[in-house]
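Private note to self, pasted from the team thread so I don't lose it. Backbone tokens:
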């Protein structure tokens, strides 16, 4: 607390001998005269009684120009109302701070940061105020630039075709552009404040976590995943994300764009699907069969469930081509594919692996007899006549079938044995199926009709 004698503090130190000042007042004056901030003393009615020499450097005024004058002489009426509210809150030991425009000696105005602190005597009576002023023009300019940048950012973000998003480093969405409604159906306020993971397909969460780990080394990370929509569906989105400084100078934040990737993903999947299918019959081709076999082995884990590999050859395909030409042969292959598909279960994979060769993967067989039933059904189906063209006539063409049944972890061996069983069926006269059952515990097994 400053003593009551401060009210009588001389305006200029050279006007009084320092021996006449108490030690506390000498200390106050020495500090006030040498700090960069402007220090002002006021009486209880807010009349300026003293100003530090730094007022000349900051505002161009001589310290004596302040004596006997009030704040209203140096600020506009609008500013005075703001400062008066700040000053009214500086009671009970509180220091109130604000930024306002202060008139300089040349008539221009300077943005200053001001603070006000009450001085009371031992009985708690107000005897004046200490006011400090500091140049805030750079701070105001930076804030104006920042606000302008933020306005420009939001203007661009809100009108971008992609969705622009701001979030923290933990994935919490702080701001989402309104364009998210057109993309995902959500309103921005339905997403803001929630974690990004809340909207990601469970199978794609590891992609998100991996991207966050990579952001520690990479400037920008991009990935594609599925996000939920307000319609309880999922939509493919490409996310581009980077870490950047925040607008308010606080902790670093992440800025991301969400790009609609649904059409791109569907087109890519369609191209992949085309590459995996036989163009004539629409069945899986050899590439798809081999990939499917590999996936089955990789995802199976320990299992005692049996699988079957079936090889099918058309017995008279060359004769069909010779009699009806390639167009008739193609029509025959399409019908043959339809019959094969109609004979097996929905879980079975049917692939065309050659001109007149087909391969089937039979999953989750209860026993070898189940595979035998399917093979016999195929043989019987091909004994029915084929109609090839309206004017071309009919064809009776049989098939030979080789089947191998065993455990899922030995698919490579089963493919070899299925070929051996097919050869056995052909050597016995065709129009039949041969079955090879892999030995499970002991003994041996070979092809059987």
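Design output:
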């Amino acid at each position: 607390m400053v003593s009551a004698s401060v009210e009588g503090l001389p305006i200029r130190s050279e006007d009084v001998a320092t021996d006449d000042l108490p030690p506390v007042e000498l200390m106050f004056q020495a500090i006030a005269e040498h700090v960069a901030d402007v220090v002002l003393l006021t009486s209880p009615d807010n009349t300026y009684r003293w100003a530090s020499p730094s007022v000349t450097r900051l505002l161009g005024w001589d310290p004596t120009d302040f004596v006997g004058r009030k704040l209203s002489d140096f600020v506009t009426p609008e500013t005075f109302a703001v400062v008066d509210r700040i000053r009214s809150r500086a009671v009970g030991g509180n220091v109130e701070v604000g930024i306002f425009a202060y008139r300089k000696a040349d008539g221009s105005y300077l943005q200053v940061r001001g603070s006000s602190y009450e001085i009371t005597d031992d009985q708690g009576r107000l005897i004046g105020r200490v006011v400090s002023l500091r140049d805030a023009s750079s701070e105001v300019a930076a804030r104006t630039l920042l606000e302008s940048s933020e306005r420009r950012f939001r203007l661009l973000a809100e009108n971008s075709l992609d969705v622009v998003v701001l979030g923290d480093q933990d994935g919490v969405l702080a701001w989402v552009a309104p364009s998210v409604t057109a993309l995902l159906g959500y309103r921005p306020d339905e997403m803001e404040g929630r974690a990004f993971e809340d909207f990601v397909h469970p199978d794609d969460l590891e992609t998100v976590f991996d991207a966050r780990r990579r952001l520690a080394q990479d400037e920008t990370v991009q990935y594609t995943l599925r996000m939920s929509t307000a319609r309880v569906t999922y939509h493919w989105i490409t996310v581009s994300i980077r870490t950047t400084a925040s607008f308010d100078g606080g902790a670093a934040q992440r800025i991301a764009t969400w790009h609609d990737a649904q059409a791109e993903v569907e087109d890519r999947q369609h191209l992949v699907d085309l590459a995996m299918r036989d163009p004539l019959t629409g069945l899986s081709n050899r590439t798809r069969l081999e990939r499917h076999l590999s996936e089955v082995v990789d995802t199976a884990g320990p299992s005692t469930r049996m699988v079957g590999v079936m090889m099918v050859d058309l017995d008279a395909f060359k004769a069909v081509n010779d009699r009806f030409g390639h167009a008739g042969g193609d029509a025959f292959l399409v019908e043959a594919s339809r019959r094969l598909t109609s004979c097996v279960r929905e879980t079975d994979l049917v692939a065309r692996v050659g001109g007149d060769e087909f391969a089937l993967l039979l999953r989750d067989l209860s026993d070898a007899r189940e595979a035998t039933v399917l093979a016999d059904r195929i043989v019987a189906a091909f004994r029915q006549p084929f109609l090839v063209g309206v004017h071309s006539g009919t064809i009776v063409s049989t098939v030979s079938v080789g089947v191998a049944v065993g455990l899922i972890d030995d698919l490579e061996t089963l493919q070899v044995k299925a070929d051996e069983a097919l050869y056995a069926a052909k050597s016995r006269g065709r129009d039949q199926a041969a079955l090879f059952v892999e030995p499970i515990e002991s003994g041996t097994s070979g092809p059987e009709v």
